[in-house]
Amino acid sequence: RTVYLNGDYMPETEATVSIFDRGFVMGDAVYEVTCVLDGRLTEFDGHMARLARSLKELEIPCDISRDEWLEIHRKLIELNGLQEGGIYLQISRGDVGDRDFHYPPAGTPPTVVLYTQSRPGLSTDPKADEGIKVISVPDLRWHRRDIKTVQLLYASMAKMAAEKEGKDDAWFVEDGFVTEGSSNNCYIVKNGKIITRQLSNDILHGITRSSVLKMAQEAQMEIEERPFTIAEAQAADEAFFTSASAFVMPIVEVDGVAVGSGKPGSVAKRLREIYISESLKSAI
Ligand code: PLP
């Protein structure tokens, strides 16, 4: 693979970062994953807007413009012949010389890394026809989940816990209510109404979430933004999650209890179709 590091394109084997980098030492970095379909970027502007917000919240300086980001993304797609998959982008606070809790002095350049991840068959994933199974785990993450940082250890632990039980993913639960999935936003459907937690610092503001809700609204579907419980999900007609790389994914089991018929629901299937076709149409 050819990757991008701090202004240069190079073979991945040559892309190295300092052991003093704050991303490495303190998890002091933000990221985005933009999906590529048919060799083009989906939801590009949404991801770049969220990136700018994450950087601002953490006061990480980075003056790369939207158009420059676009050029870098497109060049990596071209250099790697990427058709379907994603582009991972990470910005850390940079190499600060020695370990220190304080932010480095102004002018310390951030470390900027981008690379492609090829995932042929992403848009025709057979998992979407079967639906996936989730377990619930307590949400023990910090309370700025609206910032997309690389501090993903707890999400990783949750996914491993699910795997150990032979399931596909985990939902986080806090104060009795589902916050979100380990790497996605989640939804239930009851009597035709789509229910999903409202935006706050408790969840990541999913780019896919925002588009899917807009599409659902345009398709005259009813939406209620509020928290829901595991018991409600188990008694729902259907459940699903959204994320940039899985689009709309039906969920057929929550903590060992089948949701609805135990098969992917019609709302999830319809939204998945709409979302993928609209994403292809608007990809750049
Ligand atoms: N919530 C969490 C914790 C995530 O990690 C992600 C994606 O990585 C999402 C939600 C979904 O966000 P998006 O639709 O922008 O991919």
Automatic annotation (TrEMBL):
Pathway field: Amino-acid biosynthesis; L-leucine biosynthesis; L-leucine from 3-methyl-2-oxobutanoate: step 4/4; Amino-acid biosynthesis; L-isoleucine biosynthesis; L-isoleucine from 2-oxobutanoate: step 4/4; Amino-acid biosynthesis; L-valine biosynthesis; L-valine from pyruvate: step 4/4
InterPro entries linked: Aminotrans_IV (IPR001544), Aminotrans_IV_CS (IPR018300), Aminotransferase-like (IPR036038), BCAT-like_C (IPR043132), BCAT-like_N (IPR043131), Class-IV_PLP-Dep_Aminotrnsfr (IPR050571)
Cofactor dependence: pyridoxal 5'-phosphate
Gene Ontology biological process terms from the UniProt entry: amino acid biosynthetic process; branched-chain amino acid biosynthetic process
Keyword flag Amino-acid biosynthesis: yes
Enzyme Commission number, as recorded: 2.6.1.42
Pfam family, one: Aminotran_4
Catalytic reaction annotation: L-leucine + 2-oxoglutarate = 4-methyl-2-oxopentanoate + L-glutamate; L-isoleucine + 2-oxoglutarate = (S)-3-methyl-2-oxopentanoate + L-glutamate; L-valine + 2-oxoglutarate = 3-methyl-2-oxobutanoate + L-glutamate
GO CC terms, sorted: cytosol
NCBIfam families per record: PRK06680.1 (NF005209)
Annotated PANTHER family: AMINO-ACID AMINOTRANSFERASE (PTHR42743), AMINODEOXYCHORISMATE LYASE (PTHR42743:SF11)
Functional description taken from the UniProt entry: Acts on leucine, isoleucine and valine.
Family of this protein: Belongs to the class-IV pyridoxal-phosphate-dependent aminotransferase family.
Name by which UniProt lists this protein: Probable branched-chain-amino-acid aminotransferase
Organism from which the protein derives: Antarcticimicrobium sediminis
